[in-house]
Write a structure and sequence with these properties.
CATH architecture of the largest domain: 2-Layer Sandwich
Strand order of the largest sheet: 2-3-1-4
Order of helices and strands: HHHEHEEHE
CATH topology of the largest domain: Alpha-Beta Plaits
Number of helices: 5
Strand content: 15-25%
Shape: elongated
Length: about 150
């Protein structure tokens, strides 16, 4: 990966709809060069796609909680994670080391709704859990330094 690749990644990470022509102009190269590089970065899996970033609060899910879950010992984590996908308010699911097996980011309409979601999560993984409600988000969705 060279400086041009880094410029392309940085520009697209800031706004996935940035025209290749604008990136090319800022980098001082031809648009076809940027197009070919972006295609190669995608084929290598360095760029995994572009997506819309949704403001969870604006769509009615202002409560954020981080939920740590202990998985049943007889069930593979992948199976539990697949079941968690059925709950659309679970934004992220990470397998972790330490006291708990999975860490979930959960978005809810209210504290009552969060309680319902926690009940749904406990149906899937009835072991111990710990819930931390987020009071403020100072930054989110950072892009890795390239």
């Amino acid at each position: 990966m060279d400086d041009l690749d880094r410029k392309i990644i940085t520009a697209l990470a800031a706004d996935g709809r940035t025209p290749y022509s604008r990136i090319a102009e800022e980098a001082g190269v031809a648009t076809t060069t940027v197009h070919q590089r972006a295609k190669r970065l995608t084929e290598k899996g360095i760029i995994r796609g572009t997506r819309v970033i949704v403001d969870w609060e604006a769509v009615g899910l202002p409560v954020t909680a981080v939920v740590s879950v202990e998985a049943p010992p007889d069930q593979p984590l992948r199976e539990i994670a697949d079941q968690m996908k059925a709950i659309p308010e679970i934004q992220n699911c990470y397998a972790t080391t330490g006291e708990f097996d999975l860490i979930l980011t959960v978005r809810a309409r209210s504290s009552d709704h969060l309680g319902q979601l926690l009940s749904d999560i406990r149906q899937i993984a009835p072991g111990r859990s710990r819930t931390i409600v987020v009071l403020a988000t100072f930054f989110d969705g950072r892009v890795p330094p390239v």
